[in-house]
Write a structure and sequence with these properties.
single chain, 120 residues, alpha+beta, 5-stranded mixed sheet, 5 helices
Length: 120
């Protein structure tokens, strides 16, 4: 099954020139509704039990430059969100899954090494 919670290294991400770190929820769906993959059947079964987390909703925080580098070519947040959605669809395609980006707050900033070391 896909990783439910994932966070890239925020501080490592902020060291790059045009750092963009995004947290989001990606809602998984079967790639083909008429022929569900075995993974989707497992996700559906586990998620239907109210004692379990919903495994069809991934909560991830990624450094765009390293995890979805093709998404970082634009400064427009709409384009970046579409790029992340495409990146994640490609990432889970081999499991017979697709999905949609549900929540998308992004933080884009520049941070230099001196500001990190001044905290320490």
């Amino acid at each position: 099954m896909p990783v439910l919670f994932h966070l890239d290294d925020y501080y490592q991400c902020m060291l790059s020139k045009e750092a963009t770190f995004c947290t989001f929820t990606f809602e998984l769906q079967p790639l083909h509704s008429e022929k569900e993959s075995d993974i989707w059947k497992i996700i559906s079964k586990v998620s239907s039990d109210p004692r379990n987390y919903r495994h069809d909703r991934l909560r991830h925080g990624i450094c765009i430059a390293t995890t979805c580098p093709n998404s970082s070519k634009s400064l427009n947040m709409t384009s970046i969100s579409k790029g992340i959605e495409l990146c994640y669809k490609e990432k889970y395609n081999y499991l017979g899954l697709k999905g949609k980006l549900q929540t998308f707050p992004a933080k884009q900033q520049k941070m230099n090494i001196q500001s990190i070391y001044s905290i320490l």
